[in-house]
Amino acid sequence: MTRKLQPGRLVAATHNKGKVAELKDLFEPLGFEVVSAVDLDLDEPEETELTFEGNALIKARAAALATGAPALSDDSGLEVTALGGMPGVHTAIWAGEPRDFYVAMEKVERELNAIEATDRSAKFVSCLAVAWPDGHEVTFRGEVHGHLTWPPRGEMGFGYDPVFVPVGHEVTFAELEPAQKHAMSHRAVAFDKLKKALL
Ligand code: IMP
Questions:
Q1: Residue 88 Cα to ligand 1 middle (Å)
Q2: Closest atom, ligand 1, to C-alpha of 22
Q3: Residue 108: which residues within 8 A CB-CB, separation 6 or more?
Q4: In whole angstroms, what is the distance from residue 65 CA to residue 69 CA?
Q5: Which of 32, 121, 123, 138 is nearest to 76 (CA)?
Q6: Which CATH number fits domain 9-198: 3.90.320.10, 3.50.50.60, 3.40.640.10, 3.90.950.10?
Q7: Are 130 and 5 in contact (CB under 8 A)?
Q8: Domain limits of the chain?
Q9: Span from the CA of 100 to the centroid of ligand 1 (angstroms)
Q10: Which of 159, 169, 162, 124 is nearest to 145 (CA)?
C-alpha cells in the first residue's frame, strides 16, 4: 500500500521564499503546518544531480534526516526549447550570486538573440519530492507550457515569472494574481499528483 502523508508538521526543504509561500498556500489548507528550512536554520545541500527528481530528493532527504520529520522539496526550472532545454537544472545558477533574476532573464534573452531563435517556446518544470526520516521517498513531476516575452512584465510571483506567458494567456505569470498562477502552475500540476497519491 502507498504510504500516506499524515497532516501535521511538514518541513519545506527550501531557502527560496517564493517557493515557501507557494508550498504554504498549497499545503496549509489541508491541515499541514509548513515550516521552512530557513525557519529551522538548516544547511542548503549542494544540488549535484543532473535531473530535477535527483536534486529534489537530495534536498528532501537532507531535511528529513536533519529534523526527523517528513520533508517536502521542490526542484524546478525553466526549459527553453531553442536552447536545448537550458537553463533546466541550472535555472537558479543563471541568476548569479547573489541571485538576480533580472540578470538571469536577460541571459536567456541574450542566448535566444545570439542564435536568432524564432521558437520562443518554453516550459516550467517542477519536481516535488517527499522524504521520510526512515528513507522512504517519492517524487511527482508537473509541467506548464508557454512562451517567453521581452521585456519582463509584472510585479507578482518570483524568479522568471515576468517573462513567462502560459499557453492560453496573454499576460505573464508575474501579472497573474497568485491564486490564478497557483491554479495552473507546474508546481500545482505536481501537487495534484502528490495529493492523489499521498493524501
Ligand atoms: P531550484 O529548484 O532551487 O534549483 O531553483 C529553481 C529556479 O527556477 C528558481 O530559483 C526560479 O528562478 C525558477 N523557478 C522555479 N519555479 C518558478 C516559478 O514558478 N516561477 C518563476 N521561476 C521559477
A1: 10
A2: 19
A3: 78, 80, 83, 87, 94, 148, 160, 163
A4: 8
A5: 123
A6: 3.90.950.10
A7: yes
A8: 9-198
A9: 12
A10: 124
Residue 170 contacts residue 162 (beta carbons within 8 Å):
no
- C-alpha cell at position 95: 541568476
60 backbone dihedrals φ, ψ, rounded to 5°: -65, -45
- pLDDT value of residue 1: 66
Atom of ligand 1 minimally distant from the CA of 47: 4
* Cα(159) to centroid(ligand 1), Å: 6
Q: What is the pLDDT of residue 26?
A: 87
Residue-wise pLDDT tens digits, 123-169: 999 999 999 999 999 999 999 999 999 999 999 999 999 999 999 99
> What's the confidence (pLDDT) of residue 22?
84
Q: Report the C-alpha gap between 152 and 160 in whole angstroms.
A: 9
User: Which pLDDT score, from 0 to 100, does residue 2 have?
Assistant: 80
- Mean pLDDT by runs of 10 across the 199 residues of the chain is 88 92 90 95 95 98 96 97 98 94 97 98 98 97 98 96 98 96 93 95
Q: Any idea of the CA torsion for 124, 125, 128, 129, to the nearest 10 degrees? A: -140
